[in-house]
Amino acid sequence: MTLTRLIYSSQISDDFEHHDIKKILAIANKRNHQMGISGLLLFDHKYFLQCIEGPRPEVNRLYSRIVTDPRHTDITLLDVSDITNRQFGSWGMGYVPDAKITQKIIFKYSATQSFDPAKMSGSDIIDLLLDLREHIPVIDLREQSETQRQSSTNTPVAPVDATPTTSIGGDTANA
């Protein structure tokens, strides 16, 4: 089976509401796990930058759904590659929220002061995402959802994996 990595960027549309990000992430974590897809989503309140990894047919089906999602516009395919291993296999869809440290790392790879992933090269974007993965706590909603379920029963919860994460609650969808 061939693994594929697909990276795209988009802008939020007028249909996007700020609470949508939690819905997007919750659905993505649930569905992506079922489809064998992993990845990372960066969202800065204007742009989405998403890396999707998994079996080629599933990545293609997911991307077909993404391009019809009315919550974003100006979808730009930045990179598609066959890969031998996953870089973001720890998450159904890891999430990197906008923060000061995020902005510093983005600027390291961006030609401009403002973040516009459509103006970055595919290799710079991959390097950016890998740098973010190494330096920023990535939110893993699967862990949070499990934590919420367990806290409702007052039972201690073991982490999903050893990857440092910060958890938030909710179910997720694909961006």
From TrEMBL:
GO terms for molecular function: blue light photoreceptor activity; FAD binding. Residues 3-94 form the BLUF domain. InterPro entries: Acylphosphatase-like_dom_sf, BLUF_domain. Residues 153-166 have a biased composition (Low complexity). Pfam families: BLUF. SMART domains: BLUF (SM01034). Residues 144-175 are annotated as: Disordered. This is Blue light-and temperature-regulated antirepressor YcgF. It comes from Stieleria bergensis.
